[in-house]
Write a structure and sequence with these properties.
single chain; alpha+beta; CPE0013-like fold; 2 domains; 3-stranded antiparallel sheet; elongated; binds iron/sulfur cluster
Length: 117
């Protein structure tokens, strides 16, 4: 079976066709597209960006993201977990909110500095 994807590895957005049996990728303009196409039919991954609650800061929420792509299958579980988190100000970019979420090597990290008030 041939599956079609748009490569999201860069803004060019190449249209990929991936043979799900042979993992042959067509339509990519560079090796990153081939890797992306193969991953989409074997173990699709995504970088998750979101926010979590924070106490004692100028804003009630602070932005976070995964420090590397995580299995797409875990996306909703990760969002549920982030909903339970409440940080305390101050925090800085790169602070780890959750280390190795769900036993993976992926950490949730802060992406915005927040000073205490
Ligand atoms: S295949 Fe390469 S050039 Fe095309 S969108 Fe993907 S990363 Fe960009």
């Amino acid at each position: 079976m041939i599956k079609e994807f748009v490569c999201i590895s860069c803004p060019r957005g190449c249209n990929l066709k991936v043979d799900t049996e042979t993992l042959k990728v067509e339509g990519n303009s560079c090796p990153r597209g081939e890797a992306y196409g193969k991953a989409e039919v074997t173990n699709p991954v995504r970088t998750i960006t979101s926010t979590v609650k924070i106490k004692g800061a100028e804003s009630p929420r602070v932005s976070v993201r995964t420090d590397k792509p995580i299995s797409k299958q875990l996306m909703f579980k990760v969002m549920e977990e982030l909903d339970k988190v409440e940080l305390k100000a101050p925090c800085k970019v790169g602070d780890i909110v959750i280390k190795g979420i769900f036993g993976t090597d992926v950490n949730i990290v802060v992406t915005k500095e927040m000073k205490g008030v």
